[in-house]
């Protein structure tokens, strides 16, 4: 994440919007130390790298309070409880970097949000907009037809109280382009995508978490739910036998405020 955010100077002020428990905040603070202290080891986290500088301040914003206790206690971290569908709680040009990971799909108007990000960034400041594209979720299974049906159901489902979009990753560039029409022009610095391989399926693993969401999305259909429960058990067995693979395509665009 430090590499995507190009933390190329000391004293940078960064915001992670839609921070959740703070895995991105953690990765940012580890910049310059050779790698994140903890984390799932995804490409976005691994790209911390020596040569970058940990930010002086990381604002960690979410509309619920879920930040890990050690991050709350870190003097470099400022927890902000705010709504990303409203005006952001920073002055014009106050921030050097804004990072947003898997948050855009939940917003009522992601283009309006991006215009707000444009406002709070200083000229030349960077926005890292990253998203998993859930439609690309890949699970090894002996029943490919059922897997496709379940992933399609998961992609179409709206798990939370707000909106969601399982195709958001591939739309990030279009989102940025639309910003120009609302007075927030961006220069696209990079657009990258990757898919990390995950072979574990124990409780708490990324594959297990996504499969649990897949199961939840099948709740409305009792027959499908029963088959999905069997599908989950099979994934666990395949993983135990070393035959399991899970991936999902992640997309990241880096945008510069002119
Ligand atoms: C899928 S999680 C991603 C969390 C974190 N960025 C990560 O990748 O681990 C989406 C996050 O966006 C937050 N979120 C969703 N809608 C929001 C809103 N309107 N305002 C602020 N935060 C919001 C959720 O509370 C959640 O923490």
Description of the structure:
The protein is α/β, with parallel strands linked by helices and 258 residues long. The protein has a domain at 83-257: Rossmann fold, CATH 3.40.50. It is 31% helix and 25% strand. It has eight helices and seven strands; from the N terminus they run βααβαββαβααβααβ. It has helices at residues 23-29, 43-46, 69-72, 110-120, 144-156, 172-181, 206-217, 222-240; strands at residues 13-17, 57-62, 77-81, 95-101, 121-139, 186-195, 246-257. The protein has a seven-stranded mixed sheet with strand order 3-2-1-4-5-7-6, with helices on both faces. Strand 4, helix 4 (110-120) and strand 5 (121-139) form a beta-alpha-beta unit. Helix 4 packs across helix 6, helix 5 (144-156) crosses helix 7 and helix 7 runs antiparallel to helix 8. The radius of gyration is 19 Å and the shape is globular. 40% of the residues are buried. Mean pLDDT is 91; it is low at 36-41. The structure holds S-adenosylmethionine.
Structure keywords:
seven-stranded mixed sheet, single chain, globular, binds S-adenosylmethionine, 258 residues, Rossmann fold, alpha/beta
Instruction: Name the helicity range.
Output: 25-40%
Strands of the largest sheet, in order across it?
A: 3-2-1-4-5-7-6
> Helix segment count?
8
Poorly predicted parts: 36-41
User: Judging from the principal axes of the Cα atoms, what is the shape?
Assistant: globular
